Amino acid sequence: MHNPKIKEIEHLFMEFMPLYHKKLSPIFRENDDDEFRCHKNQKRAIMIIHRTKGIILSELGRYLDMRKGSLTSLIDALVENGLVERREDVHDRRKTLLYLTEAGEEYYRQMMERTSKTYQKLFSKLSEEEIEQCLQGLQHVVAALKKI
Amino acid sequence: MHNPKIKEIEHLFMEFMPLYHKKLSPIFRENDDDEFRCHKNQKRAIMIIHRTKGIILSELGRYLDMRKGSLTSLIDALVENGLVERREDVHDRRKTLLYLTEAGEEYYRQMMERTSKTYQKLFSKLSEEEIEQCLQGLQHVVAALKKI
DNA sequence: CTCAAACTGTCTGAAATCTAACTATTTAAA
DNA sequence: TTTAAATAGTTAGATTTCAGACAGTTTGAG
Q1: pLDDT of B37
Q2: A127 in contact with B at a CB cutoff of 8 Å?
Q3: Which of A50, A122, B78, B87 has the fewest CB atoms below 10 angstroms from its CB?
Q4: Which of B128, B136, B138 lies nearest to residue A16, judging by beta carbons?
Q5: Domains of chain A and any CATH numbers
Q6: CA distance B30 to chain A (A)
Q7: How far, rounded to the nearest angstrom, does the alpha carbon of residue A64 sit from its chain's CA centroid?
């Protein structure tokens, strides 16, 4: 019942997450020339809504690891700023579908432009081989997380 | 200057993080039989202090992606509950070193016991080969994050 | 069909986190 | 040596997130 390799995976995640926060999370704090003054979690929400258009609030909360109650006000602010819009779900009247507005998509593009520069700068410290291994490693980890 | 593989890595991280939050983060929310009623970030802090004994507040903040100002009160609560202790740094009087108390280590052990059960259950859905690939993948990603 | 269980989003007051100052200490350049 | 810049931790007030309760809707078992 107890698989030692899974235990190793657990340890690696505990090593991985602090490293991610230290090296990569700060990217979402960068607030220079952010006309809407979005904070970190608003930016994370925008990135997810862009990728999964029509997502509902509850599911967004799962992806962000935030409670749906917190998201009501977070999304309210984004709607007020004209970056996000709510639409009713025709097939399930409980649900509200979330989309980026055109302004939201534009904001997303600008955000990604800055993000990419930071990624390029950071990972250029690695050799081509290390980059390749990181890339393939991430693919395997993502594939695993999708299955569990 | 622009490396397309780094761009792929960036995309994979953007896919990875929401998946991690959805599948693995909830583990730290489990609050059954938690006599100290530690919330998620307190648990994350305890895990990091266990791994990096004698860490200072500012560095802990980087690993948690939290501001040092927030950590003063977070650590205060853990100290009051007898799980963490502050010690002065003899060589640099600005610094305060953080350690788990014996009760803190015991709390950590109990938390890890529950965590491990959840990891075992989740990852047992994967084949041996998929587990191996996830494991090796994580090793490469961690190695990369350490270098950048 | 009926009705309980599950799920949606919102609300309210409590709790946690953030921003931005501030003091103290160390580092390093002048 | 002197001094400016960088870093550590704390504090106060503003902002964000939380837990828990709520009403409306859908699902599914009997």
Answers
A1: 87
A2: no
A3: B87
A4: B138
A5: 4-147 (1.10.10.10)
A6: 13
A7: 7
